[in-house]
Amino acid sequence: MLQNLSAQTFRPYGQVLPGSRRPSHYANYHTISLTPEQSVFYKTTAATWLGPAQGMTALSVSLDDHTYGDFLLDRGVQLPAGVWFSLTPVENTSAVEMAGFSLPRCLGTQVQDSSYRISPGMQVQSLYTFFQEEKEPGFLFPGEAHPMGELVYVDKGRVHSVAEGQDLVVEEGELVVYAPNQWHMQYADPGEAPRLVSAVFSTASSLAPLCNRKIQPGQEAAGLLRRMLWEQENPDEYAQDMLLSLLTTLLLLLLRQTRQTQGTAQSAVTLNRENMRIRRVQQYVSDHVQEKLSVPTVAKGCQLSPSYMTALFQKHLHISPAEYIRRIKLQYSKQLIREGNMNITQIAKALEYSTIHHFSRQFKDKFGITPSEYAKSLKETTGRD
User: Fold this and answer.
1) Which of 52, 135, 319, 376 would give a disulfide with 323, using CB separation of 3.0 to 4.6 Å?
2) Structural domain of residue 160, as residue ranges?
3) CB neighbours of 188 closer than 8 A, spacing ≥ 6?
4) Does 116 map to a domain?
5) Nearest to 27 by CA among 102, 105, 106
6) 117 lies in some domain
7) pLDDT value at position 383?
């Protein structure tokens, strides 16, 4: 970024003169035309005057050809002999007048390798979803991977976040971030009904420093999330731009907070291999949810031994494969009830429960109400016959 050209800031290098008119007492003068993305380098052999002639120009000055000060040349300056400087157009073309008893020696030109503008490094390009939701007790999200980044903040309660072979217990006031295409799942302990704030977004910047860890944001970061919720609840013509700006600022604060604090406790190769095997099991269960599933049949379908599959689930998900199968079937049963195309008996049969009573008992143990009561509550809420 360019410094303001003032008598105080420029004092180490020379003098700032009033106005930008070329002094008449100098015998030699020359106008230099500058092209975009090119810098011209000089060294003064005598006192030299520089002033703007056209456009905006960056003046970089050094007393030792190592440390340079960068200024916007918007008025006349005078440099003493023995000073290195370069001239670079800020935008498009520009021109600079120089004058002196002896003009400075041109040292050559080079392609500009840095910009004097501040350009965004981290910037959220799109925000796809942003919402606050209270989950049902003991909820289970079976997992997914999508091409967007995702941030999940625990506003109340706690939730288990599983990604890259790690099961993180994310407490109230903490958050997790998932990178694009990173598989992840979430679940709550029995009876736990967490309230989550989620944002799904795209950015060209790397989210790696924020992933595979839980983060406790400071007050400022948590305040940004609350402001985002307010903007969403009180929309006007600027609300969408505000949401993008606030999320960008939040991610920047988190990146600064977590810089140089991330560790690697386990080999990334091992974690990835085990994570892929867990994903294979979960995909198999999802694809065969309407079949009679047992730990041996799922393990065989995934080319794993039952004992190894059980060890993987206990290590990374802290639940048994049998419990995972039970949860997935029950979650899917709720979806079938919501769709309304089958009655409770048909759903129990479709999901390979031994009896409707077995299905109802497991459903109530999981959700606190029977399947029939859940179907009735949907009718009362939606008015569906």
Assistant:
1) 319
2) 124-258
3) 135, 137, 138, 139, 140, 157, 158, 159, 160, 194
4) no
5) 102
6) no
7) 57
